[in-house]
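Anyone up for a design puzzle?
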């Protein structure tokens, strides 16, 4: 398996920044400051990528808008994980044909995982002729060059060549929030779970250097960020490709040693790589939030094997037991797929048993969606959609009752929470997150925004907690 990491040289990034400045000279000549509309689908990794696209756009002289009609540039950062996400993107991109008819000077760009798929890019080329630029995650660092070409020449650009992937440092960032921040620590995935498109579209695992990660976190803390999430498809295998290997637990400890009052979160973890050392590090690092997102996908060993997950149900449950022994109040969440090809209802019931045993605080539940080019897409899949849906509903119902019980146990307690936003529900003033990342809606003064404050929990339902500032 390809393990060497291609690092994009500083010289190459500088060239992209110089192209940003050339575009900025062109945008400065426009009568009004041109605006960009950036829309993001999918996971936090995509959110983090969009923050870099915004960083480049700002340097090119663009402001930002949430209205497609007034945008000079539209960027849609897409997700390929399930068919539903892809259909939504295609529907929205299709509708842009009317917007562009009203504003022919508009530049429409599509990027992200879906654009790395050749069949999607072919479809855009043939049937979505109003799209000017298509590029996959590997080409993101070259975004200024693409925009410069579109500004100065006629034609469309398609850049989604398959590659193992690279690391680019020094791309400017415009973050969406000033309390919580994402920090990518690695890119790509080597696991090739048989249902998953990610390794095909995001390339092989490659780790950023610890010094780059630590200096980014130090800067975020200096800017006042309070909640920092270390991101990667499989953070537990961080560092395996570094010249001076450092594992994820060591990195976590080094981030924890940065002075300041802030919380550290991380996602996603793979059960096969989640070690006792990680659990001990989580327990001993006071800034690491007591929460673990540990996807188990399915509770039956035969299904886990055809999914190529490389762990058994027993091994998974042993790890959860070890973690709970070290951190009794650990908040646990997971991803589950229902209706993997060939999964019987009896096998699905093993998934329900895992829920009952672990008692997750929350779950991300999905119905299996075939992805072109993955091994699972060509496996026999005899179960009807109705039967899968019935199983899915049983899963959601069971989890709802567990979440409701777990949330009810907070009532009467006072919890130190990070006040992270204004509530969109008129009955409450603010939103906050417990250290375990449970959502709290609360009453209290907006001055508390961005602070860690004690919150008295007075109510709960299956989705969230309710309370008041102490
Ligand atoms: N169908 C349904 N769910 C999927 N996931 C990944 N690929 C698929 C697919 N083809 C889910 C997994 C993963 C989460 C990010 O998305 O549960 O952990
Ligand atoms: Fe996909 Fe598996 Fe990699 Fe997660 S670990 S991104 S599910 S291949």
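Challenge accepted. My sequence:
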């Amino acid at each position: 398996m390809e393990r060497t990491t291609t690092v994009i040289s500083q010289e190459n990034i500088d060239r992209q920044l110089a192209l940003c400045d050339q575009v900025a000279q062109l945008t400065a000549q426009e009568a009004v400051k041109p605006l960009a509309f950036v829309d993001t689908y999918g996971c936090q990794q995509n959110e983090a990528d969009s923050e870099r696209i915004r960083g480049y756009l700002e340097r090119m002289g663009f402001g930002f808008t949430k209205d497609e009609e007034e945008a000079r540039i539209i960027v849609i950062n897409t997700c390929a994980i399930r068919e539903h996400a892809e259909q939504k993107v295609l529907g929205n991109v299709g509708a842009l044909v009317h917007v562009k008819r009203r504003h022919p000077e508009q530049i429409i760009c599509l990027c992200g995982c879906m654009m790395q798929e050749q069949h999607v890019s072919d479809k855009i080329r043939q049937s979505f002729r109003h799209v000017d630029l298509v590029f996959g995650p590997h080409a993101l660092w070259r975004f200024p060059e693409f925009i410069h070409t579109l500004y100065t020449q006629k034609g469309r650009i398609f850049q989604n060549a398959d590659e193992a992937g690279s690391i680019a440092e020094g791309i400017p960032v415009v973050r969406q929030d000033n309390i919580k921040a994402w920090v990518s620590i690695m890119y790509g995935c080597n696991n090739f779970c048989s249902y998953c498109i990610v390794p095909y579209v995001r390339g092989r695992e490659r780790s950023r250097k610890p010094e780059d990660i630590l200096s980014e976190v130090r800067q975020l803390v200096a800017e006042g960020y309070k909640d920092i999430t270390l991101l990667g498809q499989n953070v537990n295998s961080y560092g395996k490709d570094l010249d001076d290997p450092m594992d994820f637990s060591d990195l976590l400890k080094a981030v924890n040693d940065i002075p300041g009052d802030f919380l550290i979160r991380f996602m996603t973890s793979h059960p096969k790589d989640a070690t006792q050392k990680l659990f001990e590090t989580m327990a001993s690092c006071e800034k690491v939030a007591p929460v673990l997102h540990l996807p188990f996908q399915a509770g039956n060993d035969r299904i886990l094997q055809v999914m190529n997950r490389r762990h058994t149900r027993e091994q998974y449950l042993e790890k959860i037991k070890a973690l709970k022994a070290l951190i009794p109040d650990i908040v646990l969440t997971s991803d589950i797929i229902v209706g993997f090809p060939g999964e019987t209802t009896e096998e699905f019931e093993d998934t329900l048993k895992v829920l009952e045993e672990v008692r997750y605080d929350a779950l991300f539940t999905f119905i299996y969606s075939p992805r072109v080019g993955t091994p699972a897409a060509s496996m026999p899949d005899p179960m009807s959609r109705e039967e899968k849906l019935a199983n899915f509903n049983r899963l959601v119902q069971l989890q709802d009752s567990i979440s409701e019980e777990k949330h009810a146990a907070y009532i009467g307690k006072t919890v130190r929470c990070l006040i992270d936003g204004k509530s969109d529900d008129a009955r409450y003033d603010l939103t906050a997150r417990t250290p375990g990342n449970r959502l709290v809606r609360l009453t209290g003064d907006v001055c508390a925004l961005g602070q860690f404050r004690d919150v008295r929990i007075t109510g709960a339902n299956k989705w969230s907690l309710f309370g008041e500032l102490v």
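A detail worth pointing out: DSSP finds 14 helices and 21 strands in the chain.
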